[in-house]
Design brief:
27% helix; five-stranded parallel beta sheet; 12 helices; binds flavin-adenine dinucleotide; globular
């Protein structure tokens, strides 16, 4: 009789859980063990800022699959509060430790998926160690702590003006705190928007009361046991009740390094298009992995839920015997900040410059999301970046309006399918006065880019 396949998955976030669920679809008989350090089954990290703001009132509603559903319906053995501490690649055994009892267990495997995620980075700041009032946001417990501290605070500094920093700025403003956001670049949201687009979001946030300190960082924090003030690189001292550090996340590759897996130049686990991590039967997925981006073809860290879930599916299916391929990443991102929808896909101007790619031509359009005569249209600005040599789309961004996500999704398809700007420009978009204009802002920005390419 054929023995059932033993599949072990390390990390029970969205990548690991998707891997387990997909593996179950491919192999109904496999013995699947999902090992997770946290005490909850997979929950939506993306919902954490909204839990802090109070828009989501029940933390349990963020849990996607309960332990009972995973174990009883999907026959996946879920070990919570358990950390995988060693992988013996020759004997094919994972050693795990219960983080409360320290009791060790051994888990033999035929195939293995590493989905260990990422951890928030910490910049060097003098006086930080051991002080209370300093937070990071990655886990449900972090969100509980921030929410509790916010209730007892009147002011907060946020270090880092990327998406999580801005979502927190909005959440804390909504709770009535005086918020100052400190960001080292010249404009916020620099990982996903060009400065001209990020500026639109910053102006809206300023209108809502957020104060920004750009092109600087925090060098020192003051206070006895609890933080009382932060000092910036340009010497400003800002009294605050709490500080949240959101300066990015590093792939959690400690176990992968100890197990001899190859780590790439972005500090992520190196995988092939099947998500195989270089050892037969060993796969990796999610925030711990670096993977080829669709524009430059270079390995990149694109740490998004969208990506983690897709990688997890491919890794899980292949670990269960399928032959699935992960496409290159477009990096579609969206959010709603202070009532403004924002979105981006592909590379920004800064990414393009850093990769040494040809400087793009860009087209921009600022228009309304409905015909001018019809009430309710919202202002939107769209930008499309085009490679002047190949005429292919390199990236796109949108701020404002409505249905931003769907416009960015169209650009993602254009990037994934290697469409040229003239093809995008001829896209037949739908129209009705109460829904969408005849000339969609996406088409107008594409036309604008095309004109520049042709006539400048
Ligand atoms: C506040 C916030 C908001 C976000 N908003 C968005 C958004 O709007 N849209 C979007 O696309 N993305 C968003 N993201 C990013 C998205 O949440 C991540 O890309 C996604 O969660 C990554 O999933 P993962 O499974 O790879 O890693 P993780 O979710 O980090 O899960 C990894 C798990 O593995 C566990 N683990 C690590 N090592 C071990 C070990 N040795 N043994 C056992 N367990 C281990 C960790 O404890 C963790 O539970 C957001 C992230 C945050 C923090």
């Amino acid at each position: 009789m054929k023995m059932p396949r033993k599949l072990v998955i390390i990390g029970g976030g969205v990548a690991g859980t998707s891997a387990a669920l997909q593996a179950r679809k491919v192999d109904r008989d496999a013995e699947i063990t999902l090992i997770n350090r946290e005490k909850h089954p997979e929950y939506s990290r993306c919902g954490l800022p909204h839990l802090i703001s109070g828009i989501i009132s029940k933390p349990e509603s963020l849990i996607v699959h309960s332990q009972a559903a995973l174990e009883q319906m999907m026959k996946i053995k879920l070990l919570l509060e358990t950390e995988a501490v060693k992988i013996d690649m020759n004997e094919k055994i994972v050693t795990a430790k219960n983080v409360r009892t320290n009791r060790q267990t051994q888990h033999p495997f035929d195939s293995l998926v590493l989905a260990t995620g990422a951890k928030p980075s910490t910049p060097p700041i003098e006086g930080l160690n051991g002080k209370s009032g300093v937070y990071k946001l990655r886990t449900l417990e972090d969100a509980f702590e921030i929410a509790e501290a916010a209730r007892a605070s009147r002011s907060a500094a946020i270090l880092g003006g990327s998406l999580i920093g801005m979502e927190l700025a909005e959440a804390l403003t909504r709770l009535g705190l005086k918020v100052t956001l400190i960001h080292r670049s010249s404009e916020i949201l620099s990982p996903m928007l060009d400065p001209d687009m990020g500026r639109l979001v910053r102006l809206k946030a300023e209108d809502e009361g957020v104060k920004f300190m750009l092109e600087t960082t925090i060098l020192k924090v003051a206070g006895e046991r609890k933080i009382e003030a932060v000092e910036t690189a340009n010497g400003e001292i800002l009294p605050v009740d709490m500080l949240i550090i959101t300066t990015g996340t590093d792939p959690d590759v400690d176990l992968a390094v100890r197990s001899g897996l190859k780590i790439g130049r972005n500090r992520g686990i190196v995988v092939d298009s099947r998500m195989c991590a270089g050892v037969e039967g060993v796969y990796a997925a999610g925030d711990c992995v670096e993977y080829q981006d669709a524009v430059s073809g270079e390995p990149s860290l694109i740490q998004l839920g969208t990506v983690a879930v897709r990688m997890g599916r491919v890794a899980g299916a292949n670990a269960a015997g399928a032959h699935e391929i992960m496409p290159p990443l477009a990096g579609t991102t969206t959010a709603n900040l202070f009532g403004l929808e924002i979105g981006s896909v592909g590379l920004t101007m800064r990414d393009i410059q850093r990769r040494g790619l040809p400087p793009p031509k860009f087209g921009k359009a600022s228009t309304l999301t409905k015909p001018e005569y019809y009430p309710g249209g919202k202002p939107i600005t769209m930008k499309v970046l085009v490679n002047p040599e190949s005429l292919k789309i390199m990236g796109g961004q949108a701020v404002g309006g409505e249905n931003v996500a769907q416009r960015i999704n169209v650009l993602a398809l254009a990037i994934q399918q290697n469409l040229k700007i003239d093809a995008l420009m001829k896209l037949e978009t739908c129209y009705a006065p109460s829904v969408a204009p005849i000339w969609d802002p996406l088409i107008l920005s594409a036309e604008n880019a095309y004109r520049k390419l042709k006539f400048e």
